[in-house]
Design brief:
Order of helices and strands: HEHEHEHEHEEHEHEHEHH
Keywords: Carbohydrate metabolism, Lyase, Schiff base
InterPro entries: Aldlse_KDPG_KHG (IPR000887), Aldolase_TIM (IPR013785), KDPG/KHG_AS_1 (IPR031337), KDPG/KHG_AS_2 (IPR031338)
Largest sheet: 4 strands, parallel
Number of strands: 9
Radius of gyration: 16 Å
Shape: globular
Pathway: Carbohydrate acid metabolism; 2-dehydro-3-deoxy-D-gluconate degradation; D-glyceraldehyde 3-phosphate and pyruvate from 2-dehydro-3-deoxy-D-gluconate: step 2/2
CATH topology: TIM Barrel
CATH architecture: Alpha-Beta Barrel
CATH superfamily: Aldolase class I
Pfam family, one: Aldolase
Subunit structure: Homotrimer.
């Protein structure tokens, strides 16, 4: 798969998703019911972050048992993380930033990948390695929509998934930006609701959010 086709593939996944929930799974037994709850609410594209010891096993379980879910891996920090994501059958990978080692590994990987950027210099490094679909992170803390628009001046062709500080109140505003494919966030699956096993509540939140954002 060429670099261009990988970037077009992840762009299509993000555009179709609208919202990508950022999932930090503490207990393996929560993985499958959480994925089912999200999918039932119309949220199919999921980012399982490598922030907990059970993350890889959780992603494997989702892929095996929830075929309607499009499972990607987030918080990819190095080539080893990238290789693990590719080996388990993830559909895409996302990182919070991009070291030269990680960008080089991602450029040669078969996994569609979006590196994290927060500055023009970081974006230039990503572009130099063939990545024009990026994660703008942390979006609000790095300057918000004003910063995104400023970056769009010299880089009008770059496509973005902003994450960080995005929630129900401002997701539609971000999605209205012409270079934004989707937004990432954890507000659709609060940790308290996951711990309580409130799967019906998570499904309802997702359905409401998707209806509102698609309409907007």
């Amino acid at each position: 798969m060429t670099a261009t086709s990988k970037q077009d593939q992840i762009a299509a996944l993000f555009r179709q998703a609208t919202v990508i929930p950022v999932l930090t799974i503490e207990r393996l037994e929560d993985a499958v019911p959480l994925a089912r709850a999200l999918v039932a609410g119309g949220v199919r594209t999921l980012e399982v972050t490598l922030r907990t010891p059970v993350a890889i096993e959780a992603a494997k379980a989702m892929i095996a048992e929830v075929p309607d879910a499009i499972v990607g891996i987030g918080t990819i920090l190095n080539g080893d993380d990238l290789a693990r994501a590719e080996a388990l059958g993830a559909k895409f990978g996302i990182s919070p930033g991009g070291t030269p080692e990680l960008l080089k590994a991602a450029a040669t990987s078969r996994l569609p990948f979006a590196p994290g950027i927060a500055t023009a210099s970081e974006l230039m490094q990503a572009l130099a390695c063939g990545f024009d679909v990026v994660k703008f992170f942390p979006a609000e803390q790095a300057g918000g929509i004003k910063a995104l628009r400023a970056l769009a001046g010299p880089f009008p062709h770059v496509r973005v998934c902003p994450t960080g500080g995005i929630g129900e109140a401002n997701a539609a505003t971000w999605l209205a930006e012409p270079n934004v494919l989707a937004v990432g966030g954890s507000w659709l699956c609060p940790s308290a609701e996951i711990r309580a096993g409130n799967w019906a509540g998570i499904t309802a939140m997702c359905a409401k959010a998707m209806k509102t954002l698609k309409a907007a």
